[in-house]
Amino acid sequence: MHTTPPIPASGAPDADEQGPLDQARLTVLLETAAGAPERVDGEFLDTPFENLGYDSIALLETASLIQARWELALPASVVMESRTPRALLAAVNAAPRPGPTPPHRQGGEIAAGHTDNSIVIAAPLDMVWDMTNDVESWPQLFSEYQDARVLEQIGDTLRIRLTLNPDPDGRTWSWVSDRTPDRATRTVRSHRVEKGPFEYMELAWSYHQVADGTRMRWVQDFAMRADAPFTNKAMTERLNHNTRIQMQVIRDNIERAAARTDTFRPAPAEPVGPLPAPAGFRPVAVDSVTPLLDRGGDLRIVLSPRNADATGGIMVVADIAPRRAIREHYHPYSEERVLVLDGEMLLTLGEDSYVVKSGHAFVIPAGVPHRMGCDGDTAVRAVLCLGPLAPQPELGHVDTE
How far apart are CA 376 and CA 356, in angstroms? Predict the structure, then answer.
């Protein structure tokens, strides 16, 4: 069994850090990253990291420590792709040592950047995961993005383009990243494909259920190019500042959504079936339904108790012309489920507004005032499903403006 040197108070490996990474130094690094010395007792060099109990976050911490102690611009992917400690030793010792320090990194500049931030969101784990991994809804979830688009998907990996809101000088910054979510482990790994001012930028998100809701954690590992306008230290400070702001914005948006969801509790239903097929089946053509035009849009109730023997709710096809809106209202008895088919809907819920793109759906709980509009040049078409039914049709819809 190897002898593990004591961990200094700073948590750094002891002595001669310019020498090669050996088993003793690696042991200290792994213990520091995981905070669990018992994980690396014994002969462990050829044991897969996953069998040692190391998850992706602990390995990213290890990568950050190696970068800082040995002043290597070592991408976290090198550590993540090393399946065993022995493979990691070989990869690190084969990496080139840094040359002369660029002038803008003199004076205590760090060799690589690392941030680690987390926040607790008072919402269910599934809800936090779903909302934060719906990339194309990020302009409504974050405050910094003007646009977020999925360019392609290969396996579980999404290639996405993110565009920031214009800066004070009117410049707009955009880049492409690869993002791989793993719902089973509640982790996400991402890296910049278009690196911009970075030598590399890698991110890891993780989610854990806690007593007060869900803890969301973001870890970023990066290094700035020598000609970048910011040093690693300055960028670390900027990222920490902005990450905390965005996490608070996300928390507030998700908690508002969770509060709206909590206002509705469906009544339990008695199970039925199997039953014989209904007699006189007949589909209803949308164009055959007389539209309601006095509420700000073209509303056609295509399925209801009156024309299709519906017993659990109604279905409406809504068309909203550019720069028009269905005025604010609420449904005292019914939940409303909405699927946007065409255009981009401007949805207002109380004091909050959201842009909902085509191909996206959402739920409005019973009793919540809402307004559906179209601010773009393309008309909005959406399908609205409401249920359960109100006791009387005239009680199902209440205008508030």
Answer: 12
Q: Is residue 340 part of a domain?
A: yes
Q: Establish if 8 belongs to a structural domain.
A: no
Q: Collect the ranges in the chain with pLDDT lower than 50.
A: 1-18, 36-38, 99-107, 263-268
The answer on 159 and 254 residing in a single domain is: yes
Instruction: Mark whether 128 and 66 lie in a shared domain.
Output: no
Same domain, 180 and 120: yes
Residue 14 inside a domain? The answer is no
pLDDT digits (tens, 9 = 90+) for 14-26: 434 445 666 677 7
Shortest CA distance to 315 belongs to which of 296, 276, 341, 348?
Answer: 341
Q: Do 79 and 117 share a domain, yes or no?
A: no
